[in-house]
Amino acid sequence: MRAPIEIGYELWQQGRRVEALRMFERAVSETPREGRAHLYLAIALANQGDTARAEKHFAQAIALSPRDGFVFYNWGVYLHQQGRLQEALRAYQTAYTLDPRLAAAYTAARSLQGGAGGQGGAPPVASGQLATSHPTVSSSGIPLPPATPTRSSFATVGYICAILGPCIPLLGLIGGITFGALALSQGDRRGVSVIILSVLLSSIGFLCWGTLSSLAESSSPIP
Prior knowledge:
Number of domains: 2
Number of helices: 10
Shape: elongated
Strand order of the largest sheet: 1-2
CATH architecture of the largest domain: Alpha Horseshoe
Strand content: under 5%
Helix content: 55-70%
């Protein structure tokens, strides 16, 4: 079954804004810790003129995805449109620092820094297509980045670590918990099962190693 965020993104690209908005709201409801879901909803709300709710979800997107350059770039465009130029400049600079591929963020920051006496011109309009390295511009001028799967690769790595638990307990425990937590931070609920599985399998591994050690000691010849 396709995720609501993917369906909403497709509807948005088709110009079906109201339906897309509903899907983004559903995505946020189902995956409240997915930064891109909050970002898409913020963009859709801004497109409807609901700036109060839009800013709330922009803030949540930033809190959940502090390393996502697209989030800061979209936030910068929104602030630029609102005439909040100093805040927009900081957002653009952060976006470009996080993702140097966002040339539009760099250009917009330079424009605000030195163009038009530092007053800034119109918000930037990205010309990228549906690619992973460029945002796509919505009809409101706010870029809509490509949809990303809500599942992260961290969970997959976590499962692999957890499976190693019976053989290498320490690796299974530490690796499973670490990657499970990283998966959860990206909104992937599989992180919970990764952590539980790593604890269970590592416990079996520690028990087995303890039993083998005891048997080895008991079988050792008494001097």
